[in-house]
Amino acid sequence: MAEILEYKCPCCGGAINFDATAQKMKCPYCDSEFDPQAFLNKDKRLDEQAPDDFTWAENAGQDWDEGEQEQMNVFVCKSCAGEIVGDANTAATECPYCGNPVVLSGRLSGTLKPDYVIPFRFTKEQAKDELKKYVNSKKFAPKKFKDENRLEEIKGLYVPFWLFDSDTDAAVSYEATTVRTWSDSNYDYTETSFFDVYRAGSMKFENIPCDGSSKMPDDLMESIEPFNFSEAVDFQTAYLAGYLADKYDVTMEDSIERANNRVKASSEDVLRTTITYPYHAVVPKSSSIQVTNGKAKYALYPVWILNTDHNGTKYTFAMNGQTGKFTGNLPVDGKKLFALFAGLTIGIGAVAFVIGRILGLL
Full-prediction pTM beyond 0.85? Predict the structure, then answer.
């Protein structure tokens, strides 16, 4: 049976055919015309493009040295089932995620020892000060929240991260558009032009972070990135003294898909920056990502977790313990927000009134 090839119009998505009269590909729906060679070149490039290939060496982490595990206690939260690691001097504590008391369950065992750790650079008092600055800088936070916000709990926590390195060859096809508008005495016109843009290149990624804790929201951790890995040191249990450390419950293997997505998105963004023509929009349509020499490391990154209470609702904030970058969700003062929209409405109405008076319409 003969194979029927179908091409889609980049403008409207309709099926297009070769027009023998115009000697071009023509869309019967929007009358757009295209050079057939452009479609042939694109098909050839797509046929030659290899599928994505992400290969990572699974050797992150290391075994504990003799005696090291005896210095570590494991605490289990009965509320959220989180497992927290503390040093041998930690008698009792609270869960940094939900604030409930945690109980000692025994010595640390059965988990990998981190390869690296970034030590804390910001103290607990500095974290408290940053919380005040952060809250006071938010225009729509309720005044009562700013004045009476009660810090219930603050913990210095080492969050587990898998760090991925790779050499990457990327090839991406983008659809770019330009838009031109003009008018005459009868009509307004809009002309949208479509372009097929291709970019390829090689790049190197180092220390792509994926947190290894299912209890720590990924968006929260990404909000306080980046961490400066140049300050990382070989892991020693002494760095945990006075702090807690979360045991990873997301394995390196389970983190690979997220690392792949970050490599893919970053590759598309990097190649996108090489497209300099002033298009109005550039969207990736297809890509081929080849990862080689992929490897991973296991590290602990410093994070201050601050839990506050306001009107019976708990609000959680996080601060990068190395750089001081702060993030968290705040309640919104509905009256302030309403006043803003009311002001905008009045402003728009006043402008319309003035314009109407000028035009003699009012």
Answer: no
